[in-house]
Amino acid sequence: MLDRDLHPFLSNFGFSRRDNLELEEYSAISLPSDSFSAPEILNCCNLYTFTEATDVFAYSGVVFAVLTNKMPFEKMNFYIKSKAIKSGDRPYIPEFVPEHWRNLLNQCWAQDPNKRPTFTEICDMLETDDFVNNLSDRGAFDEYKKQMEPFRPSSKKSDKSIESNRSKDDIFIGEDNQKYYKKIDDIGEGRRSIAYKIIDTRTNEILCKKVVKIQDDLTSFKNIKNAIKEFEVLHSIKHPCICRAIAINPAEPFNNVTTVSLYLEFIPRKLKDCLANKI
Hints:
The protein is an alpha+beta fold. The chain is about 35% helix and about 15% strand.
């Protein structure tokens, strides 16, 4: 996304759309957020794979698209593309792509996540003479760099996955403790999930239980992956103004199949009431 000063902001690609001027107004087309997922995610979509290294891999797909005006493996369907990525195949880089950009791509989409650079290291590379000497407006680049300096990523390697929280927080719901949570009422149903009002009978705490729906294989894969990422983010933030993620059940029984459910803070307010009262 670009703001009014043309400053870029990255957002959830699951909400983005491919630009197509021939589409009629209100037409919708989808761009799956897993269009260039890291091999470790494709090999095992679980609670321990969403790290800075996987984001760097996804970033390489964005860089490739900007440099070539093509999506990575754009003529492959999801399953063939996934198989290719997991086996170590990568998109062909055209000859017109300069060597320094080629090197950056090869580092960022390395098969081994430990061999990918951090975003701080990527920033360091992008500020070298190879990348900036050919800029049409070096002054604008230096000014933008100055503006972004306070937001520059830490030099400490990041791996903020749920796995790091397991030892200090009892965040997993399984067969042993699922029996303590009792349904009180239905909250609502959306396209991707169903929400229930539940109670923890051990503490009498009221919670919201969000169960991911099982649909076709590809849709379910994306919905479950996004739900796990949602839990990881909400659980790590722990901000008083943001709904807390309490626990997760990675093996929730639902209509004779297994899915994922999130146990969230229950906020007894309706959105329209919050807006009306400026809460």
